[in-house]
Amino acid sequence: MLRTTLVAICLAFVPVISASASALASGSIPASVDAYVERYRAATGLPGVEVAITKGGKVIHANGYGKTATGERVTADTPMAMASVSKSFTALAVMQLVEKGKVALDQPVCRYLPEFTMADPRAAKITLRQLLNQTSGMADSAFHEKSLPQPGTLEGAVARLKTAKLATPPGTAFSYHNTNYQVAARLVEVVSGEPFAAYLHAHVFTPLGMGNSKTVDTDRDLPGSARGHLVLLGRAVAVPEPAGFGNGSGGVLSTANDMARWLIAQNNGILSRESIKEMRTPSEQNQEYALGWMIGTTERGTPVIEHDGDLFTSTAAQLLMPEPGYGVAVMANTGTAYGDADALMDGIVAMIEGGAPQIPSSPPYLVTDILFTLLTLATAGLAVRGVARSRRWAATSGAWRRWRLLPYLGPLALCIMIVPVMRVLLRGGDIRWIQVVYLYPTFMVWLVTASAAGLTVVTARLWGTARLRRQ
């Protein structure tokens, strides 16, 4: 897409900040990371971010930078949205039940959750493992989870599946679909007899000392510290997250200090070795996705276990490097269009491996935003000119010329069809109109302006023609 292409061009000209591996090993990593994060924020306009770095059983660094959407200072104890990083927590909750013998990964979900039914008989064969490794057969292409009315509870998230169908037979294809994890979280509720938020509090957050962490249901439950921004013309603008349900799939709120404890616990007895191995074993359908974790490597080839998360106004990322023993978590209060959490994560990993992180030379998409802003102003000006000259146009045009008005309605047609178009571009991924606005704000401002301008010009010219006929 346009923004992705622009980023690739910009990154070819970005400066770097050096940090040697010996400096990190000697204990100067806090100062090095602080300098890197502050330079990154200055270059991009990122309002607020938290970072946690661990090694083995020790916290190397945990800090907060900048401001929240409500203007408060971000600290290492400021709750921020973890988005889809939450899937790792849901998978852990399920594995705890597996270890207690209450559920089995390869048994049908409906055995433990009778309320889980779909308008597709194949759904009865979906196993708990298939929910967690995203091979259940549920997919955005068959069930528009984002654009349908949003539930308010996990029970409601499962209930709305009664009329849904599968995209593929269970266990045959990978499809990243948030509903998988909402069903898994509801299963935890039913099997444990505790609300999912209470279960995580009692069995995950409290035992790990994550006193500032919790999970929420919807965007309405996000506290001010967890709300985020769009970046327009290089300036961050605080905006509410589009309405959506996220518990189980993206509802966890946490802090740098809490995430440091979480990262340490991944290799420190949170589960048995067998369960940890199970969680890090990918499916045959996708060798890069396991149970709530992704399997990959760094640019230098170091194996990593990771998972990122994207809301439309904030992002998060977590990563484990099993061989050197490092763990990293980043939370940023700008949305998925900017990818700040992932970018900062990449920079910190580069520093850990003795490389030099990249610093963008300007705020993301600044040139694109300027171009579309100018295009919007030009479009409005041309519309005024077109309306002013509509009487003259009507006086000099024949019937054949009126067909030439059709292209003026092109932007309106695109504006109406933008959701289906985006679904094609996203290869079946679901999205709502307002979410497209959050992804491409200045483009959508231009498109709406062009739609209104084209419709106004066409109306004015046809009205002028009708008046001349009456005269």
TrEMBL record:
A Pfam family it matches: Beta-lactamase
Position of the signal peptide: 1-25
Transmembrane intervals: 365-384, 405-426, 438-463
Positions in coiled-coil regions: none
InterPro entries: AmpC-like, Beta-lactam-related, Beta-lactam/transpept-like
Keyword Ribosomal protein tagged: no
Alphabetized UniProt keyword annotations: Membrane, Signal, Transmembrane, Transmembrane helix
Beta-lactamase-related domain ranges (all copies): 33-339
Gene3D superfamilies associated with the record: DD-peptidase/beta-lactamase superfamily (3.40.710.10)
PANTHER family: BETA-LACTAMASE-RELATED DOMAIN-CONTAINING PROTEIN, D-ALANYL-D-ALANINE-CARBOXYPEPTIDASE/ENDOPEPTIDASE AMPH
Identification of the protein by name: CubicO group peptidase, beta-lactamase class C family
